[in-house]
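Hello, quick one for you while I still have it in my head. A protein chain has come my way and I'm curious about its shape. Can you walk me through what the tokens say about the fold? No rush at all, and the record is pasted right below.
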Amino acid sequence: MKVSELEKQMEEAAPRNEPRRVEDTTILSEEHFHRMVCLERKRAERSGKPFLLMLLDTGKFLPNERNGKVLENVVSALALSTRDTDVTGWYKDHAVIGIMFTEIAVDLKKSILATMLLRVSSALRDCLTLEQFSQISISFHLFPEEWDGEQTPQDPNDSALYPDLRQEKGRKRLSRLFKRSMDVGGALVALLIFSPFFLLIALAVKLSSKGPMLFRQQRVGQYGGRFTFLKFRSMYVNNSSEIHKEYVRKLIAGKAERKGNDGVFKITNDPRITPVGRILRRTSLDELPQFINVLIGDMSLVGPRPPLPYEVEAYDVWHRRRLLEARPGITGLWQVNGRCRTKFDEMVRLDLQYARKQSLWLDLKILLRTPAAVLSGDGAY
């Protein structure tokens, strides 16, 4: 599609969004602009309408007071290249200017990058010298990001779209240190206490069916990092995952039916599970090796459950936040609040609630409630 045709479609789709006048342009402070990025991201999660964040790194000349005219020229160029509904502000004070192009049509989101780059670059060339223009670097960040089996979310430290999470991570540095200390200490104590069970369970698994004692599986951790998830094997080897894949797609889409007498959202009477495996799953003893994952640092004692890659592929945009805001854990709010009785959206909301209220005291309360949830077998299959 030609740029001129694309611009025409944009104007027809949003005739109210005329280029703003220079005198109407306001550059928001870094704090306010970051807040606007966060709000726009949450809006886009629900509406499904993408937005484009463009960052102009102004180089070395803007901090110099005598170059105030240069800043004025840059603002003038941006004013002529943006609409009233677009938001301009400091992404980084007096270093990086950010512009959010909001409510982009879904079918135009890829073509819009070339259009905006051409429009802004042309405006900057008209008002800056070649030397000044050469010092400006322009980057584009489209939300929501494209996800597939290989592309997963980034650490907020590496993504311009999550300034709020990056700041939150910095503020909670001491809290995260205490949490990690509790994870290491708790995992060591648990491995010591349950070490006799490890031998007994390993023998039971080995003698009941062919295959390894431990089941290793790729899971998606915080920020999309893959890690090897450990469990005692509860299934027969060489079985197909298609049954689970199909059910997961229905569960995430809200189309799964409750199963069993308990009315759980999980596959019951799964033919892939061994007789010993059913006991291990019912008592959650199959999850004991995950304390090794905690010790390594792949998981925490408390946090969202780590999903499989094909689960992440089926996520709605807002579901992805559970991978960004907390490290996955052995137990969490979902496990102590009905477990598989809850719908998938309810599980995600519990994970996000935990991420917002995360504290050592909350972790302790969840850990203290976990034994009762495990012994009751509520929602476990």
Q: What stands out?
A: The two ends are 52 Å apart (CA to CA). The mean pLDDT is 80. Strands lie at 51-57, 87-92, 96-101, 137-143, 214-220, 226-232, 300-302, 329-331.
